[in-house]
Write a structure and sequence with these properties.
The chain is of the alpha+beta class. Helix content is 49%, strand content 17%. The chain has 4 helices and 2 strands, in the order H-H-E-E-H-H. A hairpin with a 4-residue loop joins strand 1 and strand 2. 16% of the residues are buried.
Length: 83
């Protein structure tokens, strides 16, 4: 019979990990791939929020915004960002 294991998470260290340079670099890589796949006018950004690093791909030009509205381009390239 298996014994019960108690795990205590260190929230401060988890927050540090989620904001770390390595996580930011990986987010930048993945969002960059997705932005390039989306095409001209799409840009990727990485910022550090209160609890974690956040990666985002946005339509930065009016043409890209129209393209995204008509073709759902960002939804089509979202798989480029998956693990």
């Amino acid at each position: 019979m298996a014994r019960r294991v108690d795990v205590k998470l260190n929230s401060r260290e988890i927050d540090k990990l989620l904001k770390s340079k390595g996580v930011q670099d990986e987010l930048a890589r993945r969002t960059g791939v997705a932005a390039r796949a989306a095409g001209r006018g799409y840009e990727s950004t990485v910022e550090v929020g209160r609890t974690r690093a956040l990666g985002r791909v946005t339509a930065e030009t009016p043409e890209a915004a129209r393209d995204n509205a008509r073709n759902h381009t960002l939804m089509r390239v979202r798989d480029q960002m998956r693990w």
